[in-house]
Amino acid sequence: MVILDGGLATHLESLGADLDDPLWSAKLLVEEASLIRRAHLDYFAAGAQVATTASYQASIPAFLRRGLSPAQAEDLILLAVRLAVEARDAHGQGTVAASVGPYGAYLADGAEYTGVYDLDEDGLVAWHRDRWHILAGSEADLMACETVPSYAEARALRRLLDETPDVRAWISFSCRDGEHISDGTPLRQAAALFAGHPRVIAVGVNCTAPRHVPSLIRRIEGKPVIVYPNSGETWDASARRWRGLADPVEFGAAAAGWHAAGSDFVGGCCRTTPEHIRQIHEHVYGG
């Protein structure tokens, strides 16, 4: 089994970063890039074998909206990869996955969890294309197409993958329940888009509630399965606390179960930390 990292933004905030910004973790590419490298190193030290770059929200349009030039935007996207490569090299081993966040992340209105877009498939291809080719030409080992909420966006990403014949990728969807991706398409149907693709190394789900993961694993056929859910926390107003798999030990135990159920790649997403990843390692490998 391959152990992924956890929530990059979550850990950056624990290190003192203020990410209350439309650029989210990509804000630090402009302001405090060394903190991103430190976060990657912390995840490697915790047992992660993959560093997922801080390019989830780092799109060309997002940087242009901030007032940067196209050349500056490209440099920052490449910086996201370079920071992960530097951390990997300092650690001595590991894989660098270039994060390809969905169009909904740019919209910053929660659309990555609904799939409600104002672009069709052709528009999504055009929106993603510049960043895709920048990352395809970078030092990253593969592309991590993450939190994909819509069937149209999945089709668009497959077209871009076909434009770059030397690139490998994984595809992970955001899901509304134990059967459907966020726009209502059955996960089985969405995953089938990539089942026969020779350069897709895994298909799965991320930033989805952990309780849905066992059912979702069963919907994926023809490829290794990747899962890295969020902590599943919800706010209990009466108790004034978050409830879910926030406890790293519980998360690690659940992750061992996901592996036993057929997942070949396991990690965490939002509100998971290096300690969650350490617990995955301990529960799967015994320390």
TrEMBL record:
Lineage: Bacteria, Bacillati, Actinomycetota, Actinomycetes, Streptosporangiales
Named cofactor requirement(s): Zn(2+)
Name this polypeptide is given: Homocysteine S-methyltransferase
Source species of the chain: Planomonospora corallina
GO BP annotation list: methylation
One of the Pfam families matching this protein, by short name: S-methyl_trans
Annotated ranges, domain Hcy-binding: 1-284
PANTHER family registered for this protein in UniProt: HOMOCYSTEINE S-METHYLTRANSFERASE-LIKE ISOFORM 1, ZGC:172121
Documented EC number(s): 2.1.1.10
Binding-site residues, Zn(2+): 207, 269-270
Entry keywords, A to Z: Metal-binding, Methyltransferase, Transferase, Zinc
Gene3D superfamilies referenced in this protein's UniProt entry, alphabetically: Homocysteine-binding-like domain
Recorded GO MF terms: methyltransferase activity
